[in-house]
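Example record for the data management plan.
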Amino acid sequence: MIVLSVEQLFKNFGGVAAVAGVSFEIGPGERRVLLGPNGAGKTTLFHTIAGSIPATSGRINLLGQDITRLRPDRRARLGLARTFQITNLFPRLTVLESVLLAIGGANAKGLQLIFPISSYRDLYARAHHLLEEWGLAGIAGRTVRDLSYGEQRQLELVLALAGQPKLLLLDEPTAGLSPAETARVVAMVQRLSRETTVLMIEHDMDVAFELADRITVMHQGRLIAEGDKDAIRANRQVAEIYLGTE
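Corresponding structural encoding:
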């Protein structure tokens, strides 16, 4: 079954088509990277897939179900999770509290505040397991605002994984990171189970080519190329528009 199918998707802002007739499919377990210069429409496309902004027209299918008009929370319940280009965390929570909140939100029971949070032993066990698995157990008690930017990016990825998503959208996960921090985030993505399909916007070409099974290139709201790494490297239009090659 195709995990994500986008069919003739448009998103207009006034008379400007930020996304103009985009169509593509992503198969199970695939690592798809979305490339394109600033203003190409990549993040707007992410917003429409995640449901934070409505599509003007077209269709989005997740695991065979039409999600085009569903709210973001409904899409999340069906197995879609995302990170953001700008880190979006609760600065006053600890790392452990952040993970507990994410797990509770993904859990059918949720977190009912009539009970003390310490009563949710199964959620605590899951949170500690996640932090151990992804190497963040040592900072579990630290407040989010006291973390380095790289640690915050890693935490955001763990929060997105808390609900065991079928489709994970990563919006420039290495933006603003040092080489060492970038390497850690790349390693986390490489370790993801192939049960989770990944669609990622990435500005770093080395990271993109290291992680991608296939690459889709956008320019001025449209898809201009799609293929494996060798095909994209050899594509003259991509070189001229995205890489700036004469």
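Summary line stored alongside the record: The CA atoms of residues 159 and 210 lie 23 Å apart.
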